[in-house]
């Protein structure tokens, strides 16, 4: 008997009808002879509604109480899901993060999993029941308080349970058929990828592919959990995300997919004195704000002035606090000015085969040049090349590049109703 | 420093504005130099909405999962209340029933409190924080599952905490000024009672007074907890519900108040063979349905037939299941027929002074006779007389009796907006 962990997001359990549909899907997996553990998100917009409510009673809600509040969301969906399954004649039991042994550190709102002890989940499985676990939440042993894992938390819950229970596969249900060579809402001829390495998936997620949360992919890679990203609206196979074991050789395509990201902004620190350690000073100040920096480019110093410009990209949501911190540090650092630009788009091409294939950068840059698209920043990893351009041209560039690398499918991709995630 | 337990019901925390108002009230109590523990219900109609949702996914929701679902209601309100208090600059910490040590038996949906170990609540108080506890919920040690206490559960949570923590008083906040000599929405000249014994309050609650739940009053009486029923909309003193200690003599008014109840129905078992043990057989069958029987009247047997009629009252909500059970037992019991009447009203007069004053029954019966009101059933306790009549005449009878016993106040009672409870 195989053990399968299934994760259903908020759009899959948005109302009573959806919950019954998901329950049926879970029961089918059970009837096929598998043990089933389910990680479930809060229904539809529940989490956002609760956040709104919190801000109505307190301008800066206490983080401990915020977690107490938000964790009700998954508790509602998991209880309803368990009821629905039971009323179909199958045994099911729901567990909060705490009951399922999701032990975290004490960082309310963004807790990290430090241990997973799913004793009660295992007991339920041993007794033949389907276990439904609240995604996104955990428990800190020292404070005895409830915590939440932050965005992408439910994916991470599912993967952590799959690792702790030794599941054969962790199925991530979503409203698209799997991972695509590009966002099918932007690139019409994007096609589903049937198999991708966790390393490539990590780069795709980091580059803006929304289908899987980067944190869950990283957890899966570290613990060797196989993911299967698939649609909750169809029985089709989705995308398998696999982690080759040491020594295992996989034939990887040169380019797996392209991804676009409009969520970042660019900050340029203009006229930085070109003295040793100045970049370190700047990025220490940035790090202290807790912001996640993505790309960094330092222009060559203009010899005449001994001054240089440093640009970096970061999530728009972190923009204000970083600008504020840098402005406060301006007298000490002695730079000339700051520029903030939130009209940028980032295009990335990802593929494990890049390691052994020369000329991918040249091919990308040529395709963009031929289309008259100007590149503002470039950064590369072993299996990814990212380029920053104007935001309004990103979608067009994604189409161009998708075609240039021969990724276009035969037909247009099917996009289901729903709002991504 | 005194310890005060305060209980706020669902209508007191129905929206963000109400929550902020309640938070302010709690903070005032804290600033007056008291330690404060708060038991809070779910916001407004949350519980009913969750029950609806459950019935949409499962016709007969699993009781364990129902409790998992419903307990989110108080968790939302307690977290919001704690946030609101913190944002006013006072320390506050919310606790679930489980965290607050409300240990119950395993009867999901109607659990009984078996132990209260509020260690974390006491810790919070010791550290100067206000403790906010979810009403209505507990935890079963054997199954490690979440339970709910059933209707009136939040009042009971408050009283149980007050008993366990040795609170000076347990304040029950409601949308009326306290306990009245009659329902002020029915009897315009009803006036607030400033002091009532827990025994009288118990009879009033059993007789239909909605302001306090009978279970909470009983818990308070057993543990000597003083209750103060008061309005969350005004700073006025409300009604003190006290339990005189052994030997303490209290001057009690002959009549404390009158109460009406339209929630009951009457079942008559017609033509019961007048043989020994027949009543026992009937009420064994009724008891097996779990219904709560109130009054029982057996008519004198008509000598010619050796048959008798037995009537009893019970909550309308239990009517159908009891009728079904009796119909099934008709062949065995050999009675002639069953009659169901849900158009009855029960009027009760309650007063501790009845014990030592003769003639109260006579006074009541005379008042009703003078008004042309027919009595269908009568039952009495040491400090209560209840009379069943036609439902449509109950409100008129309450006015008559309130006046007859000299309870009318000088002015009309103020009734706040709101729906009772």
From TrEMBL, chains A, B:
SUPFAM superfamilies: ACT-like, Carbamate kinase-like
Domain ACT: 267-343
Keywords: Amino-acid biosynthesis, ATP-binding, Diaminopimelate biosynthesis, Kinase, Lysine biosynthesis, Nucleotide-binding, Transferase
Reactions it catalyzes: L-aspartate + ATP = 4-phospho-L-aspartate + ADP
Taxonomy, superkingdom: Bacteria
GO molecular function, one term: aspartate kinase activity
Catalytic class of the enzyme: transferase
EC number of this enzyme: 2.7.2.4
Pfam families: AA_kinase, ACT_9
Pathway the protein contributes to: Amino-acid biosynthesis; L-threonine biosynthesis; L-threonine from L-aspartate: step 1/5; Amino-acid biosynthesis; L-lysine biosynthesis via DAP pathway; (S)-tetrahydrodipicolinate from L-aspartate: step 1/4; Amino-acid biosynthesis; L-methionine biosynthesis via de novo pathway; L-homoserine from L-aspartate: step 1/3
Matches recorded under NCBIfam families: asp_kinases, PRK06635.1-1, PRK06635.1-2, PRK06635.1-4
Known role: Catalyzes the phosphorylation of the beta-carboxyl group of aspartic acid with ATP to yield 4-phospho-L-aspartate, which is involved in the branched biosynthetic pathway leading to the biosynthesis of amino acids lysine, threonine, isoleucine and methionine.
Family of the protein in this entry: Belongs to the aspartokinase family.
Name assigned to this protein: Aspartokinase
Native organism taxonomy: Bacteria, Bacillati, Actinomycetota, Actinomycetes, Micrococcales
């Amino acid at each position: 008997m195989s053990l399968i962990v299934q994760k259903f997001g908020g759009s899959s359990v948005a109302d009573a009808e959806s919950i019954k549909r998901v329950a049926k899907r879970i029961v089918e997996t059970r009837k096929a002879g598998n043990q089933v553990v389910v990680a479930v998100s809060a229904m539809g917009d529940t989490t956002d509604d609760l956040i709104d409510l919190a801000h109505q009673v307190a301008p800066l809600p206490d983080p401990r109480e915020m977690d107490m509040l938000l964790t009700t969301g998954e508790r509602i969906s998991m209880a309803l899901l368990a009821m629905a399954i039971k009323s179909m004649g199958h045994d099911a039991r729901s567990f909060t993060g705490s009951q399922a042994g999701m032990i975290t550190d004490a960082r309310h709102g963004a807790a990290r999993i430090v241990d997973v002890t799913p004793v009660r989940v295992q007991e339920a499985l041993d007794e033949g029941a389907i276990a439904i676990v609240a995604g996104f939440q955990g428990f800190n042993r020292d404070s005895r308080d409830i915590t939440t894992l932050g965005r992408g938390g439910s994916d991470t819950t599912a993967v952590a349970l799959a690792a702790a229970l030794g599941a054969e596969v962790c199925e991530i249900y979503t409203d698209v058929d799997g991972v695509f060579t590009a966002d099918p809402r932007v690139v019409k001829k994007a096609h589903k990828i049937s198999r991708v390495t966790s390393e490539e998936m990590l780069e795709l997620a980091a580059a803006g592919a929304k289908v899987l949360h980067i944190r869950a992919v990283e957890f899966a890679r570290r613990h060797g959990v196989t993911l299967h990203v698939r649609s909750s609206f169809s029985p089709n196979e989705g995308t398998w995300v696999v982690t080759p074991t040491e020594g295992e050789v996989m034939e990887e395509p040169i380019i797996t997919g392209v991804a676009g990201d409009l969520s970042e902004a660019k900050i340029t620190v203009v006229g930085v004195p070109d003295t040793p350690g100045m970049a370190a000073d700047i990025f220490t100040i940035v790090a202290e704000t807790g912001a996640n920096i993505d790309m960094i480019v330092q222009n060559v110093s203009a010899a005449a002035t001994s001054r240089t410009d440093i640009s970096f990209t970061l999530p728009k949501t972190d923009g204000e606090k970083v600008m504020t911190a840098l402005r406060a540090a301006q007298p000490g650092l002695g730079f000339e000015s700051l520029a903030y630009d939130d009209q940028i788009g980032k295009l990335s091409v990802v593929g494990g085969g890049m390691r052994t294939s020369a000329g991918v950068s040249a091919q990308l840059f040529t395709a963009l040049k031929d289309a008259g698209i100007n590149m503002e920043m470039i950064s590369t990893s072993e299996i990814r090349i990212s380029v920053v351009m104007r935001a309004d041209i990103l979608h067009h560039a994604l189409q161009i590049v998708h075609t240039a690398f021969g990724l276009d499918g035969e037909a247009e991709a099917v996009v289901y109703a729903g709002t991504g995630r």
